[in-house]
Amino acid sequence: MPARCARRLIPRHDSGTLPDMVEQTVDTTATVDATTTATGTPAATEPRGPQPDPRVVEALRVRFGPIIASAHAHDPALQAHIDRWAGFTAGRAPPGPDALDVDGLPVAPARADRAIMARIGAPVARWPGGARAAVIITHDVDAFDGLSYFPVRMTGWLTTTARSLAAGDRRAAARTARRAARWSAWWARRYDPVADFERWMALESRYGVRSTFFFLSLARALSREGRMYRVADPRVARVMRTLVHHGWRVGLHASRYGSDGPGLLEQRQRLEDAVGRPVRAVRHHYLSAPFPAGWRDMRRAGLDISSNVGFHPPHQGFRTGTAWPHRPLGADGPWEVPMALMDAAYGPAAARLEAVFERLLDEAIAVGGALVLNFHSNYVAEVDAPGVHRAYGRILERIRLAVEAGDVANMPLEDAVDHVAARAVDHGGEPCPRS
Ligand SMILES: [Zn+2]
Fold first, then answer.
1. Cα distance between residue 262 and residue 146, in whole Å
2. What is the pLDDT of residues 286-297, one digit of tens each?
3. What spacing in Å lies between the alpha carbon of 198 and ligand 1's midpoint?
4. What is the distance in A from the centroid of ligand 1 to the CA of 143?
5. DSSP state letter for 96
6. For the whole model, what pTM was predicted?
7. For residue 142, how far is its CA from the centre of ligand 1 (angstroms)?
8. What is the DSSP string of 286-335?
9. Cβ neighbours for 59, distance < 8 A, ≥ 6 positions apart
10. How far is CA 30 from CA 36, 75, 317, 361, in A?
11. How many Å lie between the centroid of ligand 1 and the Cα of residue 253?
């Protein structure tokens, strides 16, 4: 067994609260210490228990590089926390009893990272320029424009308004009617803020930011996915190529239906044909990726970066307790860079975006992690998501200040993964034999 390869000492936890795990790991630590020599290297005796799960070992090795060579790799507390990264319940779930309170909104902390750091100390600096955290900006492009198939859109608004009235929700009905009226006026004079990607580039350039836009890769604009857009539409291809030409990145926004099996590969290939560049990163529409099967589909589809582990608003924060990029399936699987903050058109999350950002930025800095933001490109229209785009502008200013202070590095998702991956290779560590 290579010196840097860790053994699993306790069974995997697929469920259970953090206090449960701490309780259990405290019980077993004494056993581990007894098999560890004074130099910090594991004793020659074979640890008890089953063979290590390669993905857990890899997650530790990738994140901690040189530290993993020490006896810490055998610490069952670390194993337990990293197990959580790969074993959690997908879908809608609240952040848990230890959530941070941000103006009444529960936000999940980087609890696993903190627990690991409590045992092995602060991680080595990992971000460019010695920055203590990375801020990574992404945009889901759910709508390419606001005017295509306008009668279909209008029908949807009328239906929604009628439903709201039938349910007695006059406020929602008024809101939808307001949107319908505003968009109708824009439609009449062919004005469309959503289709204006130059505006995004100008805004982010002003703050020295480069981000990743996740585009859908649908063969048809109208389908069971809804009123979306066709990736081969020349307007879409032109925008994607312009973004990439100026330093932005294009990732795949995988559809809700048909993203398992060969469907994901087809979407990636269609998107690459349109953008004219390799596509590496994926986020599923409605965060609909299943776990862990979704990561396996990504691997088969040739996508090596995922940012799918996150909450559905209003919940926010680090879904599995980690702000660290990691590889849940091990060395040949994709990187997961958890998405910690997603905007929302309405509701408690929409009203607290800046406060949540501040809290999560503190959290990312405290653990040396990455803070991934997701602002939908179509929420640039004030009438569709009141206040959201203005909040985004103020967050960009806050990011600029944090970058200037040397606290934070800003980079596209793909560059952040390349940075971490290069460090992991630098620091070496023997891959564990598959068991
Ligand atoms: Zn989406």
1. 31
2. 999 988 889 999
3. 21
4. 9
5. -
6. 0.82
7. 5
8. GG---TTHHHHHHHHTT--EE----PPTT-EE-TTS--S-B-TT-TTS-E
9. 82, 85, 86, 326, 327, 328, 330
10. 10, 10, 33, 36
11. 7
Tokens of 302: 């040739």
Query: Which residue stretches of 248-289 are H helix?
Result: 262-275
Q: How far apart are the CA of 376 and the centre of ligand 1, in A?
A: 8
Q: How far is the CA of 195 from the centre of ligand 1 (A)?
A: 16
Residues forming beta bridges with residue 226, ordered by sequence position:
223
Q: How long a stretch of residues is the chain?
A: 435
**3-class DSSP state for residue 139?**
strand
Question: Per DSSP, what are the bridge partners of residue 339?
Answer: 372
**Ligand 1 center to 261 CA (angstroms):** 20
3-state secondary structure 196-216: CHHHHHHHHHHCCCCCEEEEE
The per-residue pLDDT for 261 is 82
Report the b/e string of 310-320 with b at 16+ CB within 10 A: bbebbbbbbbb
Q: Which pLDDT does position 8 carry in this prediction? A: 27
Q: Are 340 and 308 in contact (CB under 8 A)?
A: no
Cβ–Cβ under 8 Å, residues 355 and 347: no
Residue that is written with structure tokens 């602002």 in the block: 375
Query: Which residue, 119, 124, 194, 114, is CA-closest to 153?
Result: 194
What are the Cα distances from residue 72, in Å, to 4, 9, 79, 215, 283? Answer: 10, 12, 10, 41, 33
Q: pLDDT for 84-105, tens place per residue? A: 555 566 667 778 888 999 999 9
Is there a cis peptide before residue 338, judged by omega within 30 degrees of 0?
no
Cα separation, 160 vs 413, whole angstroms = 36
The answer to whether 323 touches 370, Cβ cutoff 8 Å, is: yes
Ligand 1 mean position to 213 CA, how many Å?
Answer: 11
Query: What ranges make up the beta strands (E) of 110-237?
Result: 133-141, 212-216, 222-223, 226-227
- pLDDT at residue 269, as a whole number: 98
Q: List beta partners, residue 335.
A: 305
Read off the tokens for 267. 């979407």
Tell me how far the alpha carbon of residue 313 lies from the centroid of ligand 1, in angstroms: 13
Q: Report the phi/psi class of residue 267: left, alpha or beta, with left for phi > 0 and alpha for psi in -120 to 50.
A: alpha
3-class DSSP state of 415: helix
Flag residues of the chain having pLDDT under 70: 1-91, 119-125, 424-435
261-279: buried (b, 16+ CB within 10 Å) or exposed (e) per residue? Answer: eeebeebbebbbebbeeeb
The single-letter code of the amino acid at 272 is E
pLDDT averaged over every residue in the chain: 81
What the block records as the tokens of 307 is: 């940012």
